[in-house]
Write a structure and sequence with these properties.
4-stranded mixed beta sheet; about 170 residues; 5 helices
Length: about 170
């Protein structure tokens, strides 16, 4: 008497969301503006503008750019804004901060238009392992978007998930 092997995970109503599927392709670049400061710490407007005039901005075509200053210089807001005016013609996105801040901004934009209707009243598992740099905030953004719509939320893989939320039963 042989029994067929049944894949209960594929037959279940469990919906899986992998944030890696939302990861926008493209080059990520950190642009450190301290290279355009005198001694790496003093911003002189005329010199700063002159440096910007010689940057090959087309090198940032379709890139996602995180602007930062690695030195302890005090950078006025207009300096980042001025650099952004040069980058905006080429880069897909420009933010001030780290690569994680950049990724968080990208996922905020992506998840703001995420349609939760296919997950309504369904058990949902958010896949945990990713080869790409998914920022921790992306998981929180997704939870915030889903929680009021789903039956339950889990994290991990179907075979070993961590329960996060279960919709209360109405009495």
């Amino acid at each position: 008497m042989s029994k067929d092997i049944i894949n209960r995970v594929s037959d279940s109503k469990l919906k899986t969301i992998d944030l890696e599927d939302f990861y926008p392709p493209g080059q990520r670049v950190v642009l450190d503006i301290s290279i355009w400061l005198r001694g790496g710490i003093v911003l002189h407007e005329k010199e700063f503008r002159a440096h910007l005039d010689h940057v090959p901005w087309a090198d940032y075509q379709d890139a996602y750019v995180a602007l930062c200053c690695s030195s302890d210089a005090i950078i006025p807001a207009w300096a980042y804004m001025l650099v952004a005016t040069k980058l905006n013609a080429f880069a897909k996105t420009v933010v001030i901060g780290s690569l994680e801040a950049l990724e968080t901004q990208l996922f905020t934009q992506i998840l703001s238009s995420f349609d939760v209707s296919p997950y309504k009243d369904k058990p949902v598992i958010i896949k945990g392992c990713a080869d790409k740099a998914i920022p921790p905030n992306a998981y929180l953004l997704l939870i915030n978007k889903l929680q009021t719509h789903v039956k339950s939320l889990m994290y991990g893989e179907a075979c070993s998930s961590v329960p996060l939320y279960k919709k209360p039963r109405l009495s």
